[in-house]
Specification:
The structure holds two protein chains of two kinds. By secondary structure, chain A is mainly beta. Helices cover 0% and strands 50% of the residues of chain A. In chain A, strands 2, 4, 5, 6, 9, 10 and 11 form a seven-stranded mixed sheet that branches. In chain A, strands 1-3-8-7 form a four-stranded antiparallel sheet, with no helix packed on it. Chain A is globular. The chains are: A mainly beta, B mainly beta. At the A-B interface, strand 5, strand 6, strand 9 and strand 10 of A face strand 3, strand 7 and strand 8 of B.
Chain lengths: 126, 110
């Protein structure tokens, strides 16, 4: 059974960079027809898609966050990562690692998320 | 990109049916047959309920059904049960390998 575990700082200071890593177990990122994504949920609010990456390097991100996001995949460690720069209090949220199905070629429409990691709360505060 | 539009809340008595709408545009809901729905109980991780507009993963009760017409997708819960009280989110493919979520709907079982 595929599982994902988020690891992050818990607390980040305003204007700094949030770095979060998702470790995948029970399956391999390499060769998988999936995107590997981050979704966040501010306290008491709804879900917001951040972005995703395929092992081939194909990636996509939320236009509202695109200028601050870098996503990468490390197939040797079976991990994918997010860097979010210049954070503010508005970036305080539970961050979820999720697998998105399915990406076979450029004509694919990866669109649904399963499974989800347990989530990790990241607070932006001085 | 603006979030897909969902009603903030819907409610129903046990045994009744409720329907949640999810309205987008021709660039997302109306342009693709790729809408998914998620259920989230308080303090829990979201769970996939529906994918590709109307398909249910194994383990999801057939009380949950969904459809799409034009720019609006809908999720119907039939035979409402107390355990269905939760937040529900729609999500649509939105082009260029991106997706868009709805703002969420709180379902209350009266």
């Amino acid at each position: 059974q595929l599982r994902m575990q988020e690891s992050g700082p818990g607390l980040v200071k305003p204007s700094e960079t949030l770095s979060l890593t998702c470790s995948v177990s029970g399956g391999s990122i390499s060769g998988s027809p999936h995107f590997w994504d981050l979704i966040r949920q501010p306290p008491g609010k709804g879900l917001e898609w951040i972005g995703g990456v395929h092992f081939s390097g194909t990636s996509s991100s939320n236009p509202s966050l695109k200028s601050r996001i870098t996503m990468s995949v490390d197939t040797s460690k079976n991990q994918f990562s997010l860097n979010l720069t210049s954070v503010t209090a508005a970036d305080t949220a539970v961050y979820y690692c999720v697998r998105r199905c399915c990406f076979f070629d450029s004509g694919s429409y990866p669109n649904w998320f399963d499974p989800w990691g347990q989530g990790t709360l990241v607070t932006v505060s001085s | 990109q603006s979030a897909l539009t969902q009603p903030r809340s819907v409610s129903g008595s046990p045994g009744q049916s409720v329907t949640i709408s999810c309205t987008g545009t021709s660039s997302d809901v109306g342009g693709y047959v790729y809408v998914s729905w998620y259920q989230q109980h308080p303090g829990k991780v979201p769970r996939l309920l529906i994918y590709d507009v109307r398909l249910r993963p194994s383990g999801v009760p057939d009380r949950f059904s969904a459809s799409k017409s034009g720019d609006t997708a809908s999720l119907t819960i039939s035979g409402l049960q107390a355990e269905d009280e939760a937040d529900y989110y729609c999500c649509s493919y939105a082009g260029s390998y991106s997706v868009l979520f709805g703002g969420g709907t709180k379902v209350t079982v009266l």
